[in-house]
Design brief:
The complex is a heterodimer of chains A (202) and B (437). Chain A has ten helices and no strands. By secondary structure, chain A is mainly α. Classes of the chains: A mainly alpha (202), B mainly alpha (437).
Chain lengths: 202, 437
C-alpha cells in the first residue's frame, strides 16, 4: 500500500471530517456502561465444561464443595456465583480454570476458543464441540464411507496415496459444511469439490 | 461403481437411527439440531429448543429424552400457556419437579408464565435445589428442556422472558430452523411424510408430480412441518387411490396464483466462506406473521373467493365449528377446559356438537375453506388463554371483512355468510363498532 493511502474499509463518509477529541470524549461518556452486560448462559456453559471434564461430581451431588478441593483459595460464595449466577471469575482465574478443564478433555481443544465460547456462547462463537457432535453419528459415518469409496473409485486414487483416517475426517467435515445428512443429499456435482478437499495435494 | 458390500452396508446397518421409535416424525438431522440434542442429552445442562411453530421442536425434545437413556414414557410436557394464573403455574411446576426422578420435563412456552413463576423456576434450576422444602433438597435426576418460539435474546427484549429464566436455558440453545431457511430439505420431508401418511391410510400413491414438487419448493411453509403434514394429509384424503397415483399442486392447495420459477425454487446459495465457517453468522431473522394475522388474511380471501365462485356458505358457523374442534383437540377432549378457553359453559359445547358434526361434510369438502381451517387449528395451538373469547375475536374478523363489502354486498347476503338472521347481524355490527370505540 502506497504511503498516504487510506486503509480499505476505514474511509470516512465523503465530506465528513474527523471529530474533535472533545466530541469523542462526549460520545464515549454517552455510550459507556457502568457494569459489564450479563454474559447470559455463562454458568450453564461453565457447568457443561465441568461435566465434560468429568473431574468433580454433578451439580446435584455437591459440585461446589468438590471444586473447592481443587483450589482452597477460592471462596464458596464466589464459586457458587460462577456456577449459578453468570458471574465471571477474575480474568486470570478464568483462564486458569478453562486451561485446567480443557486439559482434561480427550481431544485437543483450543483454550482461547473455549474461553470465548463460555463468555459469549453460540452463535457469536461457534461451538468448540460442533465437530465432535457431527462425527458421533454412525449413519453419517456410513455415508462418509460410501462417498470416500466413490471418490477413490472414480478418480482411481490408490490407498498408498493417502492417510485414510485423515481423509475420512475431512470427508465428514465437508459433509457437515454441505448439509449432507442422507445419501441422496450427495449429488454427482459434489464429487469434484469433495475430491479437492479430501485429497488437496492430489 | 460402488462396491456391493458398501452399498448394502447402509441398509444392513445394525445401529438404529437416532429417531427410531419416535412416532410421527421424519428422519432428518434438521441442520445439526439432532446432533446437538444428542450431545447435550448426555450432559446435565438445561436445554432450550428454539424455533417457530411447527418446526419440530417437540421432536428434538424427544431425541433429547431418548438419547439421555431415560425410559420411554417418562417425558412430561408442561404447557405453560395452559396455566390459569401465577399460583397455578407455581403449584403445578413444584409438583412436577418433586416427582421428576428419571424424567424429562419439557416446558412449552415458559416465557408466557408470570415473571414470579419464571424466576422461581429459574432459581430452582440454577441451584438445582427444590424450593419450599425443608430441609433443603437437591432436584431429582431430571432432564430439563424448554421450547421457545423465538430466540432467547428477542424474548427478553420483548419483555416476556425474564433474564433469570433465560440465563439457565441460554447455555447452548438448539435452533430448529423454519422450512423457508432449509429449502433443500423440503422434498426430503415431503417424500417421507407422504410415505408415513400413506402407510397410516393404507394408500398406495406413487408420489408428487413435478409441478407439485415445484410448488412445494416455492411455497413459504409459514406453518412449517405441521403445515406440510396437514396439506399432504388433506391431499391424501381427497385422492382416490384407484384413479389417482400422483399428488398434484391442486391436491396440496398450493397452486393458486403462483408462478413457480426456477429462481424461487432454488435455495439461496451459501458463499464459500460461509460454507467454510469463516464468515461470522450474521443472518437476521425476518418477520413472521402470527397465525391470527394469517387467519385474518385467509378469511378475507375466503369471502372474496366465495363471491368469485358465486357461492354463499355459512362461513361464520364454519369458523366457530373449526375453532371449537381445534381447541377441544388441543386440550385432549376436555370439555371443561375447552369451555374455559372459549369463555362459555361446557354444556354449550355439548349442545353445539351435533350442529358442528352436521356441517362437517360441507365444511371439510370446501377447498376455499381449507386454508382458513388450517390456520384456525394453528391459532388454537399457539395462543395462550386470553381475556377475550377467541370465538368473538374470530367472528369479528370475519364480520369486518364482510362490512368492507357493504357497498357491493346486500345485508342479507352478508348475514348468510355469518349464518345469522339480518337483525342479529345488524346487532353484531353495532356491537363491533362499539368495541372499536
Amino acid at each position: 500500500m502506497a504511503k498516504g493511502d487510506k486503509k480499505p474499509g476505514l474511509q470516512r463518509v465523503e465530506g465528513s471530517a474527523r471529530k474533535a477529541l472533545q466530541e469523542y470524549a462526549v460520545e464515549y461518556d454517552r455510550i459507556k456502561e457502568e457494569e459489564l452486560p450479563v454474559s447470559l448462559g455463562f454458568s450453564a456453559r461453565l457447568n457443561m465444561l465441568w461435566d465434560l471434564a468429568d473431574v468433580v461430581p454433578s451439580q446435584i451431588e455437591g459440585r461446589t464443595l468438590s471444586i473447592l478441593g481443587i483450589n482452597s483459595k477460592w471462596r464458596e460464595s464466589d464459586v457458587r456465583k460462577w456456577l449459578q449466577k453468570d458471574v465471571l471469575p477474575p480474568r486470570l482465574e478464568f483462564h486458569n480454570i478453562v486451561k485446567f478443564l480443557v486439559g482434561q478433555l480427550q481431544d485437543s481443544h483450543n483454550v482461547q476458543r473455549w474461553e470465548a465460547f463460555l463468555l459469549y456462547g453460540s452463535p457469536i462463537v461457534s461451538s468448540p464441540v460442533k465437530h465432535i457432535m457431527y462425527r458421533e453419528d454412525q449413519s453419517r459415518r456410513d455415508i462418509a464411507t460410501m462417498i470416500f469409496a466413490q471418490i477413490t473409485d472414480k478418480y482411481e486414487i490408490p490407498p498408498s496415496a493417502y492417510e485414510a483416517d485423515e481423509v475420512f475426517q475431512r470427508c465428514l467435515t465437508f459433509m457437515h459444511k454441505f448439509n449432507i445428512y442422507e445419501l441422496r443429499d450427495f449429488q454427482s456435482g459434489h464429487m469434484e469439490p469433495f475430491k479437492h478437499y479430501m485429497f488437496p495435494s492430489d | 461403481m460402488l462396491p456391493t458390500h458398501l452399498a448394502s452396508g447402509l441398509e444392513n446397518s445394525t445401529e438404529p437411527p437416532r429417531d427410531a421409535g419416535i412416532d410421527g416424525y421424519v428422519l432428518d438431522n434438521m441442520e445439526g439440531a439432532v446432533d446437538q440434542a444428542s450431545f447435550l442429552a448426555k450432559l446435565d445442562i438445561p436445554i432450550a429448543i428454539v424455533g417457530p411453530h411447527g418446526t419440530g421442536k417437540m421432536y428434538v425434545a424427544k431425541v433429547v429424552h431418548q438419547e439421555s437413556g431415560r425410559e420411554p414414557g417418562q417425558i412430561v410436557q408442561i404447557d405453560c400457556r395452559a396455566f390459569r394464573n401465577r399460583k397455578d403455574a407455581i403449584r403445578r411446576i413444584q409438583k412436577e419437579l418433586k416427582q421428576s426422578e428419571g424424567k424429562t420435563l419439557v416446558f412449552k412456552c415458559p416465557h408466557l408464565m408470570s415473571a414470579d413463576a419464571q424466576n422461581k423456576l429459574a432459581k430452582q434450576i440454577a441451584t438445582r435445589t427444590l424450593a419450599d422444602v425443608t430441609p433443603p433438597r437437591y432436584l431429582p435426576d431430571v432432564k430439563l428442556v424448554a421450547l421457545f418460539p423465538d430466540t432467547i435474546e428477542k424474548l427478553i427484549l420483548f419483555g416476556s422472558l425474564t433474564e433469570k429464566l433465560a440465563s439457565v436455558f441460554a447455555g447452548f440453545p438448539i435452533t430448529v430452523p423454519p422450512i423457508k431457511d432449509r429449502k433443500q430439505a423440503v422434498l426430503r420431508w415431503a417424500d417421507n411424510i407422504l410415505g408415513q401418511e400413506c402407510a397410516k391410510r393404507a394408500l398406495a400413491v406413487n408420489g408428487f408430480t413435478a409441478e407439485a414438487e415445484q410448488a412445494m419448493l416455492a411455497h413459504d411453509w409459514l406453518g412449517n412441518i405441521s403445515e406440510m403434514r396437514q396439506r399432504i394429509g388433506q391431499a391424501l384424503d381427497v385422492v382416490d387411490s384407484e384413479s389417482r397415483e400422483w399428488i398434484t399442486p391442486l391436491d396440496l392447495g398450493i397452486y393458486a396464483g403462483r408462478i413457480v420459477d426456477e429462481q424461487a425454487a432454488t435455495p439461496t446459495p451459501e458463499s464459500f466462506l460461509e460454507a467454510m465457517d469463516i464468515m461470522p453468522d450474521t443472518q437476521e431473522s425476518s418477520y413472521n406473521p402470527s397465525a391470527l394475522e394469517q387467519l385474518d388474511l385467509a378469511l378475507g380471501e375466503a369471502v372474496n373467493n366465495m363471491l368469485a365462485a358465486k357461492l354463499v356458505e355459512p362461513l361464520g358457523a364454519w369458523l366457530s365449528d373449526d375453532l371449537v374442534l381445534a381447541v377441544k383437540t388441543r386440550y385432549r377432549g376436555s370439555l371443561r377446559t375447552t369451555a374455559e378457553v372459549l369463555h362459555t359453559k361446557p354444556r354449550n359445547i355439548t349442545r353445539w356438537m351435533p350442529g358442528i358434526e352436521g356441517r362437517a361434510s360441507a365444511r371439510n369438502s370446501s377447498s376455499i375453506w381449507n386454508e382458513s381451517r388450517r390456520l384456525v387449528g394453528e391459532w388454537a395451538r399457539e395462543s395462550s388463554r386470553s381475556s377475550q373469547s377467541p370465538l368473538d375475536v374470530s367472528r369479528n374478523m370475519l364480520l369486518s371483512h364482510l362490512e368492507k363489502l357493504s357497498e357491493t354486498l346486500r345485508v342479507n347476503t352478508r348475514a348468510k355468510f355469518m349464518d345469522m338472521s339480518v337483525p342479529t347481524y345488524q346487532k353484531r355490527v353495532k356491537e363491533s363498532h362499539g368495541e372499536g370505540g
